[in-house]
Amino acid sequence: MLRLRARSVHPVTAPPIEDGAVLVDDAGKIAALGSNRAVPAPREAEQLEFPDGALVPGLVNCHTHLELTHLAGRNAEPSFPQWIRRIRELKDATPAEEFDRAAELGVRACWAAGVTCVADTGSSGAPLEALARLGGRGIYYQEVFGPDPAKCAASMAELEQALSRLGPLAASHLRLGVSPHAPYTVSEPLYRAVAAFARRERLPIAVHVAESREETALVHDGAGPFADALRARGIPVAPRGRTPVRYLVELGVVQRATACLCIHCVQVDERDIAILRDSGAAVAHCPRSNRTHGHGAAPLAALRRAGVRVGLGTDSVVSVQDVNLWAEALAAGLDGEDALRMLTLEGARALGLDDQIGSLELGKEADLAVFPSTALYRRLPPSTAVLTVVAGRVAQR
After folding, report:
1. Which residues are bridge partners to 114 per DSSP?
2. Does the structure show a pLDDT above 80 at 59?
3. Strands 387-390, 393-396: parallel, antiparallel or unpaired by DSSP?
4. Which of 29, 89, 129, 146 could form a disulfide with 155 if both were Cys (CB 3.0 to 4.6 A apart)?
């Protein structure tokens, strides 16, 4: 058992509790919550006190690439298409053991930042293996690539082989999904095949969509640098005459039958937003990454008004250098309790995990973080947690 006392406790679904405490049972769930005087203090429980700390639900990072942790600062390409190409070159030159080390460093960096749950997309499988080995929580979406329609079967075979290898690592706190990467790396037949596979196997999908103007030009007009690069490889490109979101709806990727996390969604209009809402899709908003690459900003207020589930993500450290979700909230124009709610309960809802995590409630999983109370609501956000607890187990202090 574990008993945590802090200067303030922030349940998210209720007002903050001054001089509060949380009791965690042996199953890693919240057994009691309230004022310090009201919460039992069993003799057998480990007692941790933070007189200058604010205890909050663990933060939820709705999009990251932990296998790329070792590449921070190594891609200075100014244009997004060239940046993407350089990432692929750097990944191709990375040995498997380096991905393993990078993923473990990434998980520990998340814990140091108070993040207790990640939605990670990757191609190596290393993030899922690191989370399983270290006792982390999250969803790992196995990426699949293949812009050449003629190679759809080969891409699907690689995907199924990876999932077969990684499947035994999935558990109640570690879910496995699929990620057909983006419109400029995935052909129409491959999108359809992955969507059908995900429905059949009941796997969630994560997809980069509507991220950049170059992507929109490719999908809508069959033009721009992505289209040029594909044609240079002998891959046919045709204008679709629709937005990237509507394109993925047409291909069956974004639909109510499959849990779909749409990453970025910068280049969306009112109709796209309505489609996302009606399809039950969620959005991972990555404001600092979008700013770094000059994409603009996703219409966060409009998405929230429409009822679309939205969480915040850091994207990879190659884009933003760290996994500080408070900095994402600040970049999104959020602060105070609104920022905290977005980083916790709203993030959990975006991932379909709000019945387990995201708020401090009796019976929920004890994913917790403690930050200096004086730093929690400053405009300069805290970058390091004093304590991080995952499912009742101290992960970092």
Report:
1. none
2. yes
3. antiparallel
4. 146
